[in-house]
TrEMBL record, chain A:
Functional summary from the UniProt entry: Required for the formation of N(7)-methylguanine at position 46 (m7G46) in tRNA. In the complex, it is required to stabilize and induce conformational changes of the catalytic subunit.
Protein name: tRNA (guanine-N(7)-)-methyltransferase non-catalytic subunit
GO molecular function, one term: kinase activity
Quaternary structure (record): Forms a heterodimer with the catalytic subunit.
Signal peptide span: none
Source species: Vigna unguiculata
Pathway noted in the entry: tRNA modification; N(7)-methylguanine-tRNA biosynthesis
WD repeats: 53-94, 188-233
Cited SUPFAM superfamilies: WD40 repeat-like
Automatic annotation (TrEMBL), chain B:
Catalytic activity: guanosine(46) in tRNA + S-adenosyl-L-methionine = N(7)-methylguanosine(46) in tRNA + S-adenosyl-L-homocysteine
Protein name (record): tRNA (guanine-N(7)-)-methyltransferase
Active site, UniProt feature: D152
Keyword tags: Methyltransferase, Nucleus, RNA-binding, S-adenosyl-L-methionine, Transferase, tRNA processing, tRNA-binding
Record's subcellular location: Nucleus
């Protein structure tokens, strides 16, 4: 009984990250880290002086560009965080974590890297000087809850951490963060399931930005981080017609898996479990409201994105895939798609494989193969969904089988 | 049989619930997933359910009066009952993880309300894991006093992260406490007493009360005398170790 669900837990979704100026694109599937240089039109070969090969030995759980594109960071289940220079694509700093890493963030000036471990602790390392095997310092902690997302506020004043216990914590980022960040600015409370992703909307009238969060409760919410006030809730799954309006998202079928702002937050792309495509939300910063702008379905193939990324232009990069798929012999399955021309007025264009930036070479690099098998990706999306459920949704124990569960208690077993 | 049939869990002489019908294990795992209802946010706390006489209508019309004292891990509620009459104008709540113990305190409060009309209306109890859900019940700077009396010592080093006073949890307590608010801790375990004191001393948002201030504070005397645990320690002639600290503005934040 124990081995079966365990297998599900171990699979990791494919991840994607795009350089803010669209210089390069990175995809992580399982322990594979693949980077494509869009300017040179060729695959990037990463180098790590510490001699580690492969660079990560277990599923990568978080990748992102930071410090205005100068840095790239990757981390995951192998308890290592690697910081790469995007100029040379060399690993400039590696950090060992005591526990598996679930989220990472880089401060805008490139001075600090923060990462969250599976026990709810957030650690910080300063990158000056960049060294291998740097010792991280504890920054803050969520009480034994898996942290799903870490994000700096655009003005750098706050660091935000979202967790499985429906919470978003907004902490003042201190001048000397190596002594810990003790001052909590606010908590953003309102989600009724795990919070899966965070993103900021920036606008001139609101320099500190408005926060967006996606959750297992099938909603995207808009917050004022300074006060923690909930400004608006968009029931994305219901609005997009995936759910009956009275139907509670009891079966967690439509958890929001990722959020990505496009065109500096004018529009927000949302990936939802079981949705073959994405939902575009429009965010009205002055009225502080969110509304569904359109549902973009991806015709021609079954594509449920597991991760979204966008440079500052109107282009959205999407990936679907899974680290391993039981009963399937592709080890690291990934499929990359691009939507371009995202704008308020016009109809977005789903870019075909022949006209994708970087062309077939890019697909070969990031997917591992240029050819694709539809069914495998549907199964992959399903596996990712199950794994996410196991990881983040609280188990329900009905009272009917309470007695039988008591019999299995470890302390009783010893006596028995 | 007849209408006079009495509830055996309620004592005939005092009208209060009898503890032996609410026996519970001494420990509860704060790390396990919780399966009790949790308030979504402080504004979702139903004051009319906790303080029916003071908040007769459901909903949140009167937001002027908020809970100001929190007894974290209130146990059988001895301290709350003493505080209730000492601060009749202040709303206070006990937080307890063990459901049977929470039930006992609930019964105890409602019996006291019946026996003393008009009194004990300002005190209530909630079953929750305060280590996880403090921010779900109280807003920023809402509390003026927090109590941590005779918490589970969790001796093993591996279990220190289960201690209710820990460097990181103090961040959350500092968030819900107003500036000048006071945190009271007491234990009969010397090692834990040292631990709690050093956690508070090393935290930039807390400072110790002076001897003089401790003497002037009527609540300090209650720490060892009002609770069931405290009385037990006194009966056995044990020692207690207390740490009482004030929430301050951290020095690098004074602007």
């Amino acid at each position: 009984m124990d081995s079966e669900p365990k297998k599900d837990i171990e699979v990791a979704p494919a991840l994607i990250a795009v350089h803010p100026d669209q210089c390069s694109v990175a995809v992580a599937v399982g322990h594979h880290l693949r980077v494509f240089d869009l300017l040179a039109g060729s695959a990037v070969s990463l180098t790590d002086d510490s001699g580690a090969s492969p660079f990560h030995t277990d599923n990568i759980r978080a990748i992102r560009f930071g410090a205005k594109g100068k840095l790239f960071v990757s981390a995951g289940d192998d308890k290592t965080v690697k910081v790469w220079s995007t100029q040379s694509w060399r690993c400039i700093t590696s950090v060992s974590s005591e526990k598996r890493v679930s989220a990472v963030a880089i401060s805008d000036d490139g001075t600090y890297v923060c990462f969250a471990d599976k026990f709810g602790l957030v650690w910080i390392v300063d990158l000056d000087p960049p060294l291998h095997d740097k010792k991280p310092a504890p920054l803050l902690s969520h009480y034994c809850s898996i942290i799903t997302s870490l994000e700096f506020s655009p003005d750098g004043r706050f660091i935000l951490s979202a967790d499985r216990d429906f919470k978003i914590r907004v902490t003042c980022f201190p001048k000397n963060p190596l002594n810990g960040a003790h001052q909590i600015q606010s908590f953003c409370l309102g989600h009724t399931e795990f919070v899966s992703c965070l993103a900021f909307v920036q606008a001139q009238e609101c320099p500190q930005g408005l926060l967006l969060s996606g959750s297992g409760d099938a909603t995207v919410r808009l917050w004022n981080v300074e006060s923690g006030a909930l400004l608006d809730t968009c029931e994305v799954a219901t609005k997009a017609g995936l759910l009956e309006s009275d139907g509670k998202a009891e079966d967690h079928d439509h958890a929001v898996t990722d959020l990505c702002t496009v065109l500096d937050g004018l529009l927000v792309a949302v990936a939802i479990q079981s949705l073959q495509g994405i939902i575009l939300l429009s965010c009205n910063v002055s009225a502080k409201t969110l509304s569904v702008s359109k549902v973009v379905s991806i015709g021609g193939e079954a594509f449920v994105p597991t991760c979204l990324a966008s440079p500052s232009t109107g282009t959205l990069w999407m990936v679907t895939g899974v680290s391993t798929l039981p009963g399937c012999n592709y080890p690291a399955l990934a499929r990359v798609r691009v939507i371009s021309g995202i704008d308020v007025e016009q109809e977005p264009v789903i870019v075909g494989d022949d006209s994708i930036p970087g062309g077939e070479k890019l697909l070969e690099t990031l997917q591992g193969t240029a050819s694709v098998d539809d069914n495998a990706f549907l199964a992959a999306a399903e596996a990712v969904k199950t794994a996410m459920g196991h990881l983040l949704i609280k188990k329900q124990y009905p009272s009917e089988n309470r007695e039988s569960r008591k019999k299995c208690r470890n302390d009783r077993k010893l006596k028995g | 049989m007849s209408e006079n049939e009495v509830n055996p869990t309620i004592s005939k002489s005092t009208g209060l619930p009898r503890k032996r019908f609410y026996r519970a294990r001494a420990h509860s795992n704060p790390l396990s997933d919780s399966h009790f209802p949790v308030s979504i946010s402080p504004s979702h706390v139903d004051y009319s359910r906790h303080y029916p006489q003071l908040f007769p209508s459901a909903g949140q019309a009167d937001s002027s009066k908020r809970i100001q004292f929190a007894d974290v891990g209130c146990g059988f509620g001895g301290l709350l009952i003493s505080l209730s009459t000492l601060f009749p104008e202040t709303l206070m709540i006990g937080m307890e993880l063990r459901d049977k113990v929470t039930e006992y305190v609930k019964e105890r409060i409602s019996s006291l309300r019946v026996a003393n009309p008009g009194q004990y209306q300002n005190v209530s109890v909630v079953r929750t894991n305060s280590m996880k859900y403090i921010p779900n019940y109280f807003g920023k700077g809402q509390l003026s006093k927090m109590f941590f009396l005779f918490p589970d010592p969790h001796f093993k080093e591996k279990n220190h992260r289960r201690r209710v006073i820990s460097p990181f949890l103090l961040d959350e307590y500092a968030y819900v406490l107003e500036v000048g608010g006071i945190i009271y801790t007491i234990t009969d375990v010397e090692e834990l007493g040292e631990w709690m004191k050093s956690c508070l001393e090393n935290h930039p948002m807390f400072e110790a009360l002076t001897e003089k201030e401790l003497e002037a504070d009527p609540v300090v005397k209650l720490l060892s005398s009002a609770t069931e645990e405290g009385q037990k320690v006194a009966r056995n002639g044990g020692q207690t170790f207390q740490a009482v600290f004030r929430r301050i503005v951290p020095s690098d934040q004074t602007s």
